[in-house]
Amino acid sequence: MSDLKIFSSDISVNGKRVIVRSDLNVPINNSKIDDDTRIKVIEPFVNKLIENKAKVILLSHLGRPKGKVVSELSLKPIFNYLEKKLNGKIYFYQEKIDSKAVDASNKLKPGEVLLFENIRFFKEEEGDEETFAKNLSRLGDIYINEAFSCSHRKQASIHKITRFIDSYGGPLLEKEIQSINLIIKNKKKPVTCIIGGSKVSTKINILSSLSKKADNLVIVGAMANNFLKFKGINVGKSLIEEGSENIVKNINTLAAKNKCNIIIPVDWNTSSSVNGDPVYKSLKDMGSEDMILDIGKSTIDLISKTIDNSNTVFWNGPAGYYENKNFSTGTLSIANKIAENTKSKSLISIVGGGDTVAAIKNAGLENVFTHLSTAGGAFLESLEGKELPGIKVLKKN
User: Fold this and answer.
1) Please, what is the end-to-end C-alpha distance for the chain in angstroms?
2) Are 150 and 172 in contact (CB under 8 A)?
3) What is the C-alpha separation between 267 and 297, in angstroms, rounded?
4) How far apart, in Å, are the Cα atoms of 210 and each of 44, 78, 196, 260, 383?
5) pTM
6) Are 238 and 222 in contact (CB under 8 A)?
7) How far apart are CA 130 and CA 115, in angstroms?
8) Mind telling me the catalytic residues?
């Protein structure tokens, strides 16, 4: 961490133009923001800059417009939201990134904010183009990367821009990196990682990597079905990923070699369809028409015990088809158990992934965990030990 240039309060921003690359990529339907988590987390920092008389230039993307102007992916709803939340005047800029844009950034008064339209409306952004990055850098005097979640991408406003301007990581980015280090470097053992979701193939690297670093690897969600099937357990018509046998075999071998205990479900709540009612089944009761949709009570007990015996827990991915309330029990009980131990036993708890964060927010537990990551893919790639391009460029020379 010490080799990264991190922005600190002793850097004077008074009257300076500060570019903040943030991740305001939030779900928007009919111009209404469905989940404002990502905007909320950045507000305190932007307000701090306003208070310190900076001229703030906000850059963000939204969705995947692929270099074209797509009206549904405009940042206008985000501008309307920020107008009510920020402590300074905010303007919205929708033109090209050229000398006129530079003039607009210079005309800001200290404590004012200029939000630029979706940076991905320009194809040069995803192409990581040098000239475009240079033009972006002219909008400011200092650049701060507050979009850890985009830092696994080589894109102009994350990557190449740092060549042309004094660049730092922001407080949110620093917190994401610190929380990754709590799992891989400065860890308090025993470490338990609970990984859910539907596909093993998309999480093969993370499972392999964690089986070398964790003491326990708990596998839940549809992903667990492949591990059950590999053991010869009947999973009925549950979701299975074809051709995953070798992946499962390799992860089991790796875990055994590294003395990492793999824990898979021992009972389930099933149904004949995802919209059905739950039917409890133990290991030996599974029928050919049953579909596993959540973990059962013995599995919940097993996971709770494992959490009780851990000092660090990382959780990514729900335990079942939680979109149907009937099958959200497993996910909610894991959330409650981790929350309870974070409060009472100083458990270090790091939670990531969109679905997991959504489930936690529904349970009203978002303020309990040590760290709630909104970074998704970038967080997992970091855990795999990859150096993210957007982080690499922030290193001290």
Assistant:
1) 14
2) no
3) 7
4) 33, 37, 13, 9, 8
5) 0.88
6) yes
7) 22
8) 38, 199, 354, 377
Task: Please report, for the chain, the start and end positions of each structural domain, with discontinuous segments joined by +.
Answer: 17-169, 177-383
Which residues on adjacent β-strands are paired with residue 90?
113
Span of 4-18, 298-312, 368-382 with lowest mean pLDDT = 368-382
Do 350 and 371 meet the contact criterion of CB atoms below 8 Å apart?
Answer: yes
Q: Judge if 17-169 and 177-383 fold alike in CATH terms.
A: yes
Answer for the pair 295, 269: CB distance below 8 angstroms, yes or no. yes
Average pLDDT over residues 104-117: 98
Mark out the alpha helices in 111-186 (DSSP H runs).
Answer: 123-126, 130-137, 171-184
Amino acid at the residue 170:
G
* Spatial distance between the Cα atoms of 7 and 11, rounded to a whole number of angstroms: 7
User: Has residue 1 got a pLDDT over 60?
Assistant: no
CATH class of the domain at 17-169: alpha beta
What pLDDT does residue 389 have? 97
Retrieve residue 56's tokens.
């703030």
Amino acid at 189: K
Mean pLDDT, the chain, as a whole number?
94
Chain mean position to CA 27 = 14
CATH architecture for residues 177-383 = 3-Layer(aba) Sandwich (3.40)
Given this model, what pLDDT does residue 395 score? 94
Beta strands in the chain (DSSP E): 17-22, 28-29, 32-33, 55-59, 90-93, 113-116, 142-146, 166-169, 191-195, 216-219, 261-263, 267-271, 279-282, 291-295, 312-316, 348-352, 371-373
Give the model confidence (pLDDT) of 289-344 as tens digits: 999 999 999 999 999 999 999 999 999 999 999 889 999 999 999 999 999 999 99
Contacts of 286 (CB under 8 A, 6+ apart): 233, 234, 235, 236, 268, 270
Task: Enter the tokens of residue 22.
Answer: 């943030």
Give the percent of the chain with pLDDT over 70.
99
CB atoms within 10 A of CB 69: 12
